[in-house]
Write a structure and sequence with these properties.
The complex is a heterodimer of chains A (493) and B (484). Chain A is built from 15 helices and 11 strands. Chain A is an alpha/beta fold. Chain A has a domain at 11-258 and 393-489: Amidase signature (AS) enzymes (Alpha-Beta Complex), CATH 3.90.1300. In chain A, helix 5 runs parallel beside helix 6 (180-186), helix 9 crosses helix 11 (352-365) and helix 9 crosses helix 12. In chain A, 61% of the residues are buried. Chain B has 484 residues and is α+β, with helices and mostly antiparallel strands. Chain B has 15 helices and 17 strands. In chain B, strands 1, 2, 6, 7, 8, 11, 12, 13, 14 and 15 form a 10-stranded mixed β-sheet that branches. In chain B, strands 5-4-16 form a 3-stranded antiparallel β-sheet, with no helix packed on it. In chain B, strands 3-17 form a two-stranded antiparallel sheet. In chain B, strand 7 (108-113) and strand 8 (116-129) form a beta hairpin. In chain B, helix 1 crosses helix 4, helix 6 (316-322) packs across helix 8 and helix 7 (326-337) crosses helix 8. Chain B is elongated. Classes of the chains: A alpha/beta (493), B alpha+beta (484). At the A-B interface, helix 9 of A face loops of B. Bound molecules: zinc ion. Residues 24, 27, 29, 41-42, 44-45, 150 of chain B line the site of zinc ion (ZN). Zinc ion (ZN) is lined by residues 24, 27, 29, 41-42, 44-45, 150 of chain B.
Chain lengths: 493, 484
């Protein structure tokens, strides 16, 4: 066994290890569980660890044949808003504390069918509303690169778990950037597929028309393998895409040759961290050298996109979260009258950020304001979608930053929701337009924090983002080298 | 009466009909009535976090069937929408319904009213899911049964074109007949498989502008619909005549106290915050589905009723009774095809068949006397082989034993007694036994003829040929006639 155990391996590394006969699933899963025990006290990536269940499952797999199971014996962490049968699924919320769904999300059952072992549930902003994983009812997660910094959010727990080498793979969910932004902040890779690529059945809804489950891994290959396993039509999610996921292959050295790549002209006005600008420039240079045709392109207004995103997401959330009422499951604060039971339960059960969005969403849907806000946002969304449809007629990939800068410090933006919202400026376009996007680590800031770049392709073309990202990944040769609790600063006090 | 005419009511109906699908609208739970509470539920119909709806094609087909039967435009793509409101019987706290892009638009229900043909235009028909049921228990406890939650409903909305309470009730009866005729709803108002909400407003006659309308819910019988509307019209009229204004409100019909109770005033009006259901793509209805449903439509009740009148010369009343249900009309026509004279057949179906169905319950499709056997029986009577009285007895035996009529007639010896010599003996015996009546008859009291016929029928056990018996009695009792 290598020094750090097996938990640091990539998905491909684990497959090769098994093929060589170098270890069995129980060794790898055990090693991940040990890593979680050693590191998660500092990082706080997990809200639940299924030690016994995971080990038991791994031991079963020890005696089984891996053939036909592409994630055989791969330990996976699952974001806490994705249902795991009879295992806690609380969405980072007090209102769902202790809730155990009676069924597995489609993505989870597909992971299990592919041979993966679920080791635990990861921390998140409550109901996936947030960009820092600070809005969790249990505890904030720390960025493994610098534990005074946020891991991003809302899938901060999943990104941190992979970044800290506790698991090779995690599932996250992305509504306006919740996979990509934490992947960028934590120096790992995350993919959000085309809207509908992965069944949403069992993903606790935040904003249904934007939500997507996706993988977070140390490399593009790990994400591609996981996406392949969980993607595809699902009879119980009518919005899941019917057409099969394209083949997700790295494509080797020639991947970028002849690719038409667009770089948005509009980001010039945005205050970017120098490391982000440098990473973008390096990527463009590399792509051009590798034979891509790089051109500046105009994007639909990013400010308008983010506004459109927040109106639609809040509107849908206000309705999706109505079911947490204390009647059938989760928390209840009793009272003599029904109305008061609702009010007390929801007041005590939801955090401030969730309440803010429910109120906002209720407002934008209410009669007299509906057309002005929700109706207009839907029209804007249609126009934005048309713009991107046209844009991807002339380019194959759009390359842009994932976030304007590296991870911010914990607590820094808690009192300024608008500043927090604006950190989604580069991730909301792919969400609003429903396009596949990947974030890959692309360099380090002056403070030694990772920054990511994002590739977006036309709807249905996950193959293009995987090819492009694999090529750039090789060019950047980014090395994960975070030591939680080491160089970056103090542990959890 | 002049004051009565100062306002005319304008009535529109919203009818909810539970579809007779095997499973619920958005999940695969059985859509069944009467099971143990909360046994027909799953994550979808319980609104558990992460569960998603998937549309039941059978429900769509039934709604399309209704739409084609009513001549609606069927939208190639309609849109489900969320209607947001908090109530414990609605587990997601939003109902999935249709709002600005319904499945069916326009169309009309046509029927024959006593004063002539009537056509009630429809606004729309859409699909939505039903809520659960609250069971209020003493000591301030309430329980919820989610079995009904997610059962498919069609909501049928008329234009505000109904003129008075009985008009509304008649429309409803005809709509119910159509729903049952198409096999898509059992139309049970009392059990709530068909529910009716009413919108009522008043206006001055001739005015095209509608007054402010109010809504009445919970009308669970045709009588309640009439009574509730009548009360609301009277209330509105009083307000207007007192110089007041009508405010929007929703009231509930209290069946026990037969009165309206205000449920929500204008101030409490709900804002449902409708928006398109993001969990469901637009509902696409292909032209092939519409064609398939249209081509499979049975002859509709009104057409059938009119045809029965034209083809068999039946009175309107008979045709109406026979077309109350498709099964009855089918039964009648099968009997006619098997040789029953139509009017005779209609009489037998209306008097005997329907009466015994009412008495014993059960479905006409499983009725013990087959239409073929009924036709045989009708023929035995109209051919004069047995008397009508004997026929009724034969029918009861057939119902009891399932025998065919010929066998019953033979077994009970009910062949018509038409042998003049045997009949003569019977007539003589009856006259001899009633000398007083005979004397009075001869004295001119002709009405006693029926008495003697009745006595002969009784004597013969119903087998005497009544015409022949009558002739013989008259001849025997004629002045100076007959007595040898
Ligand atoms: Zn169900």
């Amino acid at each position: 066994m290598p020094d750090g155990g097996y938990s640091d391996l990539s998905v491909r590394g684990i497959e090769e290890l098994y093929r060589r006969g170098g270890a069995r699933p129980s060794d790898v899963v055990g090693s991940c569980l040990d890593a979680i025990e050693a590191k998660d006290g500092i990082v706080g990536a997990f809200v639940e660890v299924f030690r016994e269940e995971a080990l038991a499952r791994a031991r079963e797999l020890d005696g089984e044949d891996s053939r036909g199971r592409p994630l055989f014996g791969v330990p996976v962490a699952v974001k806490d808003n994705i249902c795991t049968r009879l295992m806690p699924t609380s969405c980072g919320s007090r209102i769902l504390r202790g809730y155990r769904p009676p069924y597995d999300a489609t993505a989870v059952s597909r992971l299990r069918a592919a041979g993966a072992v679920i080791v635990g549930k990861t921390n998140m902003d409550e109901f996936a509303m947030g960009s820092s994983t600070e809005h969790s009812s249990s505890h904030p997660t720390r960025n493994p690169w610098d534990t005074d910094c946020a891991p991003g959010g809302s899938s901060g727990g999943s990104a941190a778990a992979v970044a800290a080498g506790m698991v090779p793979l995690a599932l996250g969910s992305d509504t306006g950037g919740s996979i990509r932004q934490p992947a960028s902040f934590c120096g790992v890779t995350g993919i959000k597929g085309t809207w509908g690529r992965v069944s949403r059945y069992g993903l606790v809804a935040f904003a249904s028309s934007l939500d997507q489950i996706g993988p977070i891994a140390a490399d593009v290959d790990g994400c591609a393998r996981a996406l392949r396993a969980i993607a595809g039509a699902d009879g119980i999610d009518s919005t899941a895409l019917a057409d099969p996921c394209p083949a997700l292959e790295g494509g080797g050295e020639a991947a970028l040759d002849g690719m038409r790549i667009g770089v948005p002209s509009s980001i010039k006005g945005i205050d970017l961290d120098p490391s982000v600008s440098a990473a973008l420039a390096a990527a463009v240079r590399h792509a051009a050298e590798a034979g891509s045709r790089v051109a500046e392109v105009d994007l639909p207004d990013l400010g308008l996109t983010i506004a459109c995103y927040y109106v639609i997401a809040a509107a849908e959330a206000s309705s999706n979260l109505a079911r947490y009422d204390g009647v059938r499951f989760g928390m209840r604060v009793g009272s003599d009258t029904l109305g008061e039971m609702y009010a007390r339960t929801r007041s005590a059960g939801f955090g401030e950020e969730v309440k803010r969005r429910i109120l906002l969403g209720t407002f934008v849907l209410s009669s007299g304001y509906h057309d002005q806000y929700y109706g207009r946002a839907c029209e804007v969304r249609e126009r934005i979608r048309d713009c991107y449809r046209r844009l991807f007629g002339s380019i194959d990939l759009l390359i842009l930053p994932t976030a304007p800068g590296p991870a911010f410090r914990l607590g820094e933006r808690l009192d300024d929701p608008v500043a927090m919202y604006l950190s989604d400026i580069f991730t909301t376009p792919a969400s609003v337009a429903g396009l596949p996007a990947v974030s890959i680590p692309a360099g380090l800031s002056a403070d030694g924090l990772p920054v990511g770049l994002q590739l977006i392709a036309a709807g249905g073309r996950e193959d293009l983002i995987v090819r492009g990202a694999s090529a750039l990944e090789r060019a950047f040769a980014f090395r994960r080298r975070c030591v939680p609790g080491g160089s970056g600063g103090g542990g959890r006090s | 009466m002049r004051r009565e005419a100062a306002y005319e009511p304008v009535i529109g109906l919203e009818v909810h009909a539970q579809l007779l699908t095997r499973t619920k609208l958005f999940c695969r739970c059985p859509a069944r009535y009467g099971a143990e509470p909360n046994t027909l539920v799953c994550p979808v119909c319980l609104g558990l976090p992460g569960a998603l709806p998937a549309v039941n094609g059978e429900a769509v087909a039934m709604a399309v069937r209704l739409g084609t039967a009513l001549g609606c435009r069927i939208a190639p793509a309609s849109v489900f929408a969320r209607k947001n409101y908090f109530y414990p019987d609605c587990p997601r706290n939003y109902q999935i319904t249709m709002y600005d892009a319904p499945l069916c638009e326009g169309g009309a229900l046509e029927y024959d009213a006593p004063e002539g043909p009537r056509l009630v235009e429809l606004e729309r028909i859409h699909l939505e899911d039903d809520a659960g049921k609250l069971l209020h228990r003493p000591a301030a406890r309430s329980l919820v049964d989610f079995n009904r939650c997610g059962v498919p409903l069609v909501e049928i909305v008329t234009r505000p074109v109904l003129g008075d309470p009985s008009d509304a009730a008649l429309f409803l009866q005809n709509l119910r007949r159509l729903l049952r005729w198409l096999g898509i709803c059992d139309g049970n108002l009392e059990e709530g498989s068909m529910r009716c909400d009413v919108n009522v407003s008043l206006r001055t006659p001739g005015s095209r502008r509608l007054g402010t309308r109010t809504e009445i819910k919970n009308l669970n019988s045709f009588k309640a619909v009439e009574a509730g509307i009548r009360l609301e019209i009277a209330r509105q009229r009083k307000v207007l005549e007192g110089g007041g204004e009508i405010e929007r409100q929703t009231s509930l019909w209290n069946a026990r106290r037969r009165e309206l109770v205000v449920m929500r005033s204008k101030e409490e009006a709900r804002d449902y915050r409708y928006f398109p259901e993001p969990d469901l793509p637009p509902l696409e209805v292909r032209a092939e589905l519409v064609e398939r449903e249209r081509s499979r439509l049975p002859e509709l009740p009104l057409a059938r009723e009119r045809r029965l009148r034209a083809e068999y010369g039946l009175p309107a009343y008979d045709a109406g009774v026979l077309c109350a249900e498709r099964g009855i009309a089918d039964y009648f026509e099968r009997a006619v095809r098997a040789g029953a004279e139509p009017k005779e057949g209609a009489n037998w179906v209306m008097r005997e068949v329907l009466a015994s169905l009412r008495e014993r319950g059960g479905r006409i499709e499983e009725f013990a006397v087959s239409p073929d056997d009924l036709a045989r029986l009708v023929r035995l009577v109209s051919d004069g082989a047995i008397s009508r009285t004997a026929g009724t007895e034969v029918f009861r035996e057939m119902l009891r034993t399932g025998e065919e009529p010929g066998a019953v007639v033979g077994r009970l010896g009910l062949e018509l007694l038409a042998d003049p010599r045997r009949l003569e003996m019977m007539v003589d015996a009856v006259i001899a036994a009633n000398p007083g009546e005979a004397a009075r008859f001869r004295g001119g009291k002709r009405q006693l003829l029926e008495f003697f016929v009745g006595q002969v029928m009784k004597e013969s056990g119903g087998t005497a040929d009544p015409r022949l018996a009558r002739d013989l009695i008259e001849r025997r009792l004629a002045p100076g006639g007959g007595e040898r």
